[in-house]
Amino acid sequence: MLYASGLTKYYGDNCALQALDLEVAAGQIYCLLGANGAGKTTTINLFLGFIQPSKGELYVDGVSPVLESVTARTRLAYIAEQVSLYPVLTGRENLDYFTRLSGRALNRTESDELFQCARLNLSDADRRVSEYSKGMRQKVGIAIALAKNAKALLLDEPLSGLDPHAASEFCSQLKILSDKGIAILMATHDIFRARELGGRIGIMKHGRLVDERDASNITAVQLEQAYLAHMRS
């Protein structure tokens, strides 16, 4: 679903991403670990078509974000560290607005079902987003992704600032989405949540993918040790 080969990005003389080879299959969760500046956000922005690669190729469900950025984005949903919603609108109004932008209109029953899938209380759906916690905004983001029927979900530090309960609930939702066949690529600093989510885990450093692990074959402690070893080397 998500594919990159030799993906490289330069900003002047600075190599932000170096020869990345990456695949995320339908229904798979892939977590990218790394410090700030490791290349995680650059990778996501390349798949979104926000920036152009210097070398290499990448595809979203067989579509090139370089050559067909609009078409590629129809197959994607994106949740940033801070979900951008209109604070003066309710959660339901935001869902309706962003869904209409993708060419689809929702009736109330459909929006209720989406909020229930995202575990947002229906009473909260009709409150203004300005009153929402970060966790509630993330749930609206998930509802929007579901409404879009996205085949792949890109997340950039979505767990940052969430309390343990909200983070656990959010990860549970990601597992449900992967069970629906959605490919998930998530950049995160949270080693233990990355291990909890399962799937593949990649460790990035200075724009390079320096290690890959299968979450089912490593404990959280072993993953932390491997990560710290790479950061020290």
Short structural summary:
The chain is of the alpha/beta class and 233 residues long. It has 9 helices and 9 strands.
Task: Give the total of domains.
Answer: 2
Strands, total number: 9
Provide the spatial order of strands within the biggest beta sheet: 5-6-7-3-8-9
Looking at the structure, the CATH topology of the largest domain is: Rossmann fold
The secondary-structure element order is EEEHEHEHHHHEHEHEEH
Name its key features.
alpha/beta, 9 helices, six-stranded mixed beta sheet, Rossmann fold, 2 domains, about 230 residues, three-stranded antiparallel beta sheet, about 40% helix, single chain
3D structure, described in words:
The protein is α/β, with parallel strands linked by helices. It has 2 domains: 2-75 and 150-232, 3-Layer(aba) Sandwich (Rossmann fold), CATH 3.40.50; 83-149. The chain contains 9 helices and 9 strands. The chain has helices at residues 40-48, 69-74, 91-101, 108-117, 122-125, 134-147, 164-179, 191-197, 220-232; strands at residues 2-11, 14-24, 29-33, 55-60, 76-79, 152-156, 183-188, 200-205, 208-214. The strands form 2 sheets. Strands 5-6-7-3-8-9 form a 6-stranded mixed beta sheet, sandwiched between helices. A 3-stranded antiparallel beta sheet has the order 2-1-4, with helices on one face. Helix 7 links the parallel strand 6 and strand 7. Helix 6 (134-147) packs parallel to helix 7 and helix 8 (191-197) packs across helix 9 (220-232). The longest helix is centred in the last third of the chain and has 16 residues, at 164-179. The two termini are 33 Å apart.
